[in-house]
Input
Amino acid sequence: MTAGRPATKDTAVAPQPGAVYQYECLTRPNIDPSELHDALLTTASLPGPLARSKAAPVLAISQDPYDVLPSTVGGLSPAEAHRLATALACPDRFLIATPDGSDARPFLLALVGEARRRGERVLVLTADAEAANQVIAAILTQESAVVRAMVGAEDTESLPAEVKTVASRVLGVGRVEETRKRLTDTVREIGLQLEQWNTAAGTWQQLRDLGRQMSEPTPPSEADPARTAETEKARVNLPLLRQELADLAPMVEAKKAGKLFSKGFWKATFHADLTKRAEELESLIQQTERTLSTVSDQTPLPLKGPDGAILTEYRRLCESLAATGLTPPTSPTPEAIALAYAAAEGGRQEAEASGNFARQTLADLESDPAATAVQFLNRAAVVVGPRAALGDLAISAGTFDRTFLESAESVTQTEWEAITSTSNRMILMGDFLSHSDSRQHPGQPLTNGSHHMTTTVTDDLWHMAHRPIWSRDDGPLVAHVATVVGDVTREPLADRPEIELRFGTTADGAYVLAAVAFPVSMPVAVAKAFMAGELGEGQLVPLGPTRWHADQVLVCWPLLESHGEGVWIDLEPGVREQVVPMDGLPVTAAVSFDPALWTREAAEAWVNEKTRVARSRRTTVLEPALA
Output
């Protein structure tokens, strides 16, 4: 489907993150698009002239909503999928009529699930607490980040078990109290740890002093004579061996090059095999180095006399450190003591930093606990609550990409003003049809038998936005041609009295044909052919994604393939439409163009024009069989 003409500055709506839709207001006579858009987004009541005397506008989608067809919503019929995609594409207010007897809850849950799949943060408002609990329970099976908004006097303990855990008082104020307690405990525990470390500071110094004493060389008078002699011999021989090897190295290299004499001075002075002698020297050097290394590593630990007392003190100091939760050194050497101290100091610095952070966080929390509660609540992707909970922090301080309103037909003016401030994009579901009477002005008392009903603000919105192309009027099939206000006059067609013409007056006073009613027995394709042939009204009503054939000038909507082949009718020269009945209404399955008369570019422009009304819908009716 090609894009419509560019939206004007007054009516363009920036796409939401993750969405690919832009709308434009296409005017019918006497419609101010900017006034319409302002009315749909207003937080106040609908303007009287717009709600009561202006015709509804046409709002077109410039990109096919099925470009992001909801693939994760299972079990939807083609009609349901079409309703869902169209509703979510709307940039402001979309209304879904739920006639008495229909169960709209599954469709609401499908809408919420698809909105979440697109990354939206959503608010769901219900008529009462029981409905909110039911919605929460259903959403929790798919989404864990949920909050149940609370009414002021509502008791958390009265909620169902699965709902109680996600109540706003638990996840908001309750979470703040839990955090305050946890931070307070953390500050206290870290303070105790730092006190213990400060107490142990003297112990570490004593350990360092003992380590230095215990690492001092053993006096010669106390050393082992044999070990002393061996050490002394190694110290004397090592430099001599290294020097001999250094002197021998160039001669070994010369011999390898064939430059040494075989007799005389060289043979008498050195070993017959220079290479072998060099290897012996290397081995002796390594052995001597190992002897000296072993001697330096085997510092004897005195176990008696004064030295035994030093070791006893060392052990006592280590036990003192362990008692305070610190890790003592692994051995009484200066190196081991230094490593243990460095580890303890690192832990102290980390604890000190954690304590400072906890104290600052606690101070921030206590300075504005409500703001902290809002931060916790805003982590939830879905907030659900009755309309009476609009003052709850989870709603009043939250930000939402879209609001879903259940039982919208009963919303009061005061509630509406609060609800419209929650988000710019809303989907309203309600029994608007029980208040609907096209022969009277929206907003005026409606007569129902001997009773009078006063329409609500959402009824006014429905009357302003709902302009179907085809509908059923208690049986007869009705084709809507123009929007009128006030009463309508009904007259049978002269040569076909089974067809009824309905006339009325537009907002600017023109007397026009408003609708054509066909008998129940007439096939929908015949009615569609009559409108196209006799009145030139050929608006298409497609369903689902648009697909153009590459080898011919033919466009189709494959979502309707399961509904049979349908009936082909002529719309105008070179143009034929395949009509399929769905829910008793004509739906467009395909349109073919005579290639001798139409180019692909011209055909696309024609289809775009003939689907503008169908693509502009802000309303839909959820039939009982589809709910």
